[in-house]
Amino acid sequence: MVATRTGLVVAALAGCALAPGLPAHATESGFNDVALGFRYGTGFSEPGVVDSSGTGADIGKRIVNFTWVGGSASGSNLLVVDALFSDHADPSASGSRGAHEVYLIYRHGFASTALFGRSFGFGPVRSVDLSAGFDLNTKDTAYAPRKRMLVAGPQLQFDVPKGYLKAALLVAREWDHNGIVGRAENFRATWAMESSWMAPFALGTLPVQFEGYLNVYGPKGRNDFGQATRTEVLLHPRLMFDVGSTWGHPRRLWVGVGYEYWHNKFGVDHQITPGAVQNAWMLEGAWHL
């Protein structure tokens, strides 16, 4: 029904730390990294997309990803672009093939040291910065979503011994398009929490990372079908293996397995609309340039 909120490696990465699995090309002025990724699974779902029994359909998706992360002492940038290709269970508007979608996420982190000349921290929180950004999407289904979302708020970076843990507490405002009823959707502002983590360890000599994100978005009013939206929860943990290190190119090629749980997907009430709960296992990989 609405666009896929993709691989939010997103979530709170708009701080001065590397995205999961990214090898730093660091200089005195900061860091920069570019990665090309791929994900595949057969258990995706979409609200309102049903099978012959009227329950939520299992959808196969191939997802090609571009990620750029960079930063300096003043802040950081994260750009994620996903191209998603569904199988015929999630048809395009013409019905001749599976739907195609493009989803873009941008987050900018404003370092508190650059804004205020000092770092703010308390208890287990190492620093508090400011995160702001937007989501954009388009998808060629009958619903024809054109999501536009702005977010802004404080981001907390926790003091952990290895890897990182971040959480951004945000105000979010979304606009979209409903092709079924033929008009724009103007949702009200709501609260949101976007978080991400990465914990490195090793299996023998093979570096491994347990990483992922947990995002929660509050109700955003009624959609254009007149239904009240619900609190939305998106959880995506994964295990990624540094297979490039096995032939002398550490942190270059990562391969692993991920799982995605999405409750009230896009804020759609799962008790009313089939397909609004997603449980999807997937294979994941990323090549860092």
* CATH 4th-level superfamily: Nucleoside-specific channel-forming protein, Tsx-like
Radius of gyration: 19 Å
Number of helices in the DSSP assignment: 1
Compute the number of structural domains.
Answer: 1
Query: Largest beta sheet: what is the strand line-up?
Result: 1-2-3-4-5-6-7-9-10-11-12-13
Strands, total number: 13
Give the amount of beta strand, in percent. over 45%
The shape, in one word, is: globular
Q: What class, by secondary structure content?
A: mainly beta
Identify the CATH architecture.
Answer: Beta Barrel
Percentage of helical residues?
under 10%
Distance between the termini: 35 Å
H and E string: EEEEHEEEEEEEEE
**Sheet with the most strands, sense and barrel status:** 12 strands, antiparallel, barrel
Outline the low-pLDDT stretches. Answer: 1-24
Which CATH class? Mainly Beta
The CATH topology is given as Outer membrane phospholipase (ompla), Chain C
Mean of pLDDT: 90
